[in-house]
Specification:
9 strands; 13 helices
Length: 354
Amino acid sequence: MKVIVSLLIFSMVTALIPPGLDTLKLNQIQCIGSHNSYKQAIDPALFAMLDRTDSVMFKAIEYSHISLSDQLTMGLQNLEIDIYADAKGGKYAHPLGLNLVKGQPPYDQAGVMNEPGFKVFHIQDIDFRSNCPTFSGGLAELKRWSEAHPNHYPVFITMNAKDDTIKRPGFAIPEPFTGQVLDQLDSVIVAGLGRSRLIIPDDVRGKAKTLEAAVLAGNWPTMKAARGKFMFVLDETGHKRAAYIAGHPSLKGRTLFANAEPGTPEAAFLILNNPVTDMLRIQAMVKKGYIVRTRADADTKEARTNDKRTFEAACRSGAQIITTDYYAPSTFFKSPYVVSFDAGKYLRLNPFLR
């Protein structure tokens, strides 16, 4: 019976993957992934209180996700993970939001938030429930999933290094992402997944003078060569991006790619979140060989009105990665809005590059 069930599951997953992708380069596909992939819902009692204070703001974050593993098993090829530094541990172990409304479910019963290391959640003290509260735990989950699916196509993971301060009494003040903290991020990823499971800038640059030169020459690996691997991208600009690049021209020795400007040695992956206003730029960058991530929806707006125009623009733009909060319909409001390619697929040949 177990053999039969295993074969049925394999057949179902295989049916979601279009044939002929092995020979394509990483920049020649188009896939769908999730936004804030770790996020659990704010407890209803706390949400109701917050919604009364600012309904526009809090309706924009009224969504949640299934586990990282379940998303990947569905066929999503991209995840987004937000991290907060917590060098000593315990900074985010007792969120203020738990004190604002009585009767909420217990939080962090295992005590993992007291451990030193990066934490994963959306907004300190308010939107703090997470399917992988520690980054090390999330990496362990990804590794287990990868070991169980050793022939999987590459998974793209974008990361926000969050240190924004909420200037209100009682809110935790995040630790800044310095160059040293970003060095630690590299080390944690390699330790958590193993170098053999990673696609890093050095792999793409090869013998080219710069990473960008390699990308413009089409030096992305094939999908076949990238099977079983993960590719991480730092979704930051300004001083955090500069700190990550400093001392690492063309991202030599770095683990993550960067959201670097075209024309710089580190340019390879771009994040352009509005496929409607950024359509022509996305198309131009994709034609040149960059990988681009964009969004199908944001702030629950498209989902509430069942408006797929942004998703359709994202598909036409040629952006290789399209993120959504709705690979499944909302459980918070009534709407048929859901995002996938034809026949419920999440990965395909990039139609813009045919």
